Amino acid sequence: MWKQTGLVLAITLVGLGPGSAEARFGKRSSPPPSSNPGSSPGGRPSPSPGHGAGTPRPRPAPSGGYYAPGYFSPYGYYGNPWHRYSYFDPAWAWPFMGPYVPSYGRYYRYSQPPPRPVLGVEDAAAQPFTTSFQADGAAVTEGYAVGLGMQTDGERFGFGIDLNLFNLATDDGTGGRDSISLLSVAPSYLVVKQPRVTWRVSAGLDAAFAPSVTMAGPGFGTNARLGLLGPLKLEANAHLTPLPYIQVRGDAGLALDLGHVRLRAGYRATYLDDQGVVDGVRNVDLFRGPFAGFSLVL
């Protein structure tokens, strides 16, 4: 009796020590016999197959032929709580196995980490910001013009930069060329944002770089886009600088959306008035002509 008790305690201490024997040696071993109140009088452990039992009781195995080590009791067969597959009573095995999911059958559960969250279709399709880069060229009176721009839009608010470069023939008969650069930097707000209609307004800072003077002042703009048929859309833009110089710029045209690329073409006009800032003489110019370009949408 004392020898059996000492043997059970020794095996128990080894099993509860740092690092289980099964994990360390990597092999399957039968657990020690366990006592239960209804097995035999005197609290002695019931005999197991191959140890003096008159009629060996076959050890049941889980469906699929996979063998899980364990022991018998009046409440059923209990598997090794440290094994990946076990046949158990949930009330008894829950503190050992834990609420593992998913469940394979009524008594078989496979312990695995919780599944990773799957990104929903709506979350994957949602884009917090869209950015477009545009470039175009125009033929204007006495020269040509090049337009460059960038526009970033969120759900409602955005930010844009617009640069127009004019290369013109001189107006006083001298040689060379005159260049005028118009820069606009402005936050924007989407008043209307629908699949077929968008309307944006902006307010920011404008600057004009002329041959003899550089001026800066407040600028206001608006942009509208209307879907016509399929990828074909109608676009219109307007911009105003009230002081210290006057700039009125507007264009209208068609755009063809081809995924991330948008082709644009139309007519543009730019009115400039320096209000006599340079020498007291008021100088006025009007540049107009067709333009064509493209936008890259990201």
Stretches where pLDDT is under 50 for at least 5 consecutive residues are: 1-5, 7-29, 37-43, 48-53, 61-68, 71-78, 84-89, 100-111
Strand content: over 45%
What is the subunit arrangement here?
single chain
| Proportion of residues in helical segments | 10-25%
Q: How many domains, in number, for the residues? A: 2
Strand order across the biggest sheet?
Answer: 5-6-7-8-9-10-11-12-13-14
Query: What characteristic shape results from the CA principal axes?
Result: elongated
Q: State the secondary-structure class.
A: mainly beta
Count every helix, treating DSSP H or I runs of 4 or more residues as helices. Answer: 4
Task: Give helix and strand order, one letter per element, not per position.
Answer: HHEEHEEHEEEEEEEEEE
Look at the structure and give the CATH class of the largest domain: Mainly Beta
CATH architectural type of the largest domain: Beta Barrel
Q: Determine the N-to-C terminus distance.
A: 81 Å
- Stated plainly, the CATH topology of the largest domain is called Lipocalin
Rg, Cα atoms, Å: 41 Å
